[in-house]
């Protein structure tokens, strides 16, 4: 963990605002735990007047545990932006496009990221790929949040887009039946062949997936010629110990 702790510390030192921010976004997963610990150890003048916006139950509990004030994203006042959103990632390519959603919070993470002035990712060095969908880096595919009744239809459509395997994410030991997101939706994990290099490859796939009726959101956080869709401005990687 010390590698991830160092990466998290670096991200906070470099990108937490030097004057007290009004709003900071906090993602989900295991790496963000180190980011929040670093933020909590900052001078209290930098955090006491800040509202921290969580991206799920675990994110919220983490902030509460550090006595950091919470604000749900739907209470962000109109016209306000989040100074910086910090988060993890499941796979990051050479252009910093990401696959996110391993923690089933991708919708909340993306609705926070798109309302932030700056999006910073902290990840283990093992998440780095040349292009996304590299099996050795992140084998379980692109998480896609879908309206429950649509999952058979979306599954079929994903195969026509070139998916090689599509799984309805199970609830695991937690329950008999599928994982249900905080938004009451199902998750499909869609494995695609390793993406080729080239501009707009991620954008094109993302747009095709988003165009399927029943898809609420997907775990591709990217940028392209048509604009920015959640790609982090910077990423910090915990290097090998
Ligand atoms: O679901 C996500 O995108 C989370 O950020 C998460 O997958 C990051 O994972 P980790 O920080 O536990 O490696």
Helix-strand layout with pairing:
Elements: H1 2-15, E1 23-26, H2 31-40, E2 51-54, H3 57-65, E3 82-87, E4 91-92, E5 98-99, H4 106-113, E6 116-124, E7 142-146, H5 151-160, E8 165-168, E9 186-191, H6 201-210, E10 215-218, E11 220-224, E12 227-229, E13 234-238
Parallel strand pairs: 1-2, 1-3, 3-6, 6-13
Antiparallel strand pairs: 4-5, 5-11, 7-9, 7-10, 8-9, 11-12
Helix pairs in contact: 1-2
Bound molecules: D-4-phosphoerythronic acid.
D-4-phosphoerythronic acid binds next to helix 4.
Shape: globular
User: What ligand molecules are bound, each kind once?
Assistant: D-4-phosphoerythronic acid
> Distance between the terminal alpha carbons, to the nearest Å?
9 Å
What value does the Rg take, in angstroms? Answer: 17 Å
Number of E-type strands: 13
Report the helical percentage: 25-40%
What's the average pLDDT?
96
How many helices?
A: 6
Based on secondary structure, the structural category is: alpha/beta
Q: N-to-C SSE series?
A: HEHEHEEEHEEHEEHEEEE
The percentage of residues in β strands lies in: 15-25%
Q: How would a crystallographer describe the biggest sheet? A: 5 strands, parallel
- Numbering strands along the chain, what is their spatial order in the largest sheet? 2-1-3-6-13
Q: Which blocks of ≥5 consecutive residues have pLDDT under 50?
A: none
């Amino acid at each position: 963990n010390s590698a991830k702790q160092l990466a998290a510390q670096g991200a906070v030192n470099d990108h937490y605002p030097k004057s007290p921010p009004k709003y900071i976004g906090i993602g989900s997963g295991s790496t963000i735990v180190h980011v929040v610990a670093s933020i909590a150890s900052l001078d209290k003048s930098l955090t006491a007047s800040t509202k921290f916006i969580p991206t799920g139950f675990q994110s919220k509990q983490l902030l509460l545990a550090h006595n950091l004030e919470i604000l749900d994203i739907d209470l962000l006042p109109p016209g306000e932006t989040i100074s910086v959103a910090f988060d993890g990632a499941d796979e990051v390519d050479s252009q910093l496009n990401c696959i996110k959603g391993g923690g089933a919070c991708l919708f909340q993470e993306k609705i926070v990221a798109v309302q932030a002035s700056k999006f910073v990712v902290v990840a283990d060095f093992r998440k780095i790929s040349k292009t996304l969908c590299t099996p050795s880096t992140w084998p379980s595919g692109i998480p896609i949040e879908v309206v429950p009744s649509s999952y058979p239809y979306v599954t079929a459509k994903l195969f026509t887009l070139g998916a090689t395997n599509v799984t309805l994410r199970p609830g695991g030991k937690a329950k008999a039946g599928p994982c249900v997101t905080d938004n009451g939706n199902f998750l499909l994990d869609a494995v695609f062949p390793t993406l080729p290099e080239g501009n707009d490859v991620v954008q094109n796939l993302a747009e095709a997936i988003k165009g399927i009726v029943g898809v609420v959101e997907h775990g591709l956080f990217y940028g392209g010629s048509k604009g920015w869709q959640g790609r982090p401005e910077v990423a910090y990687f915990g290097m090998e110990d």
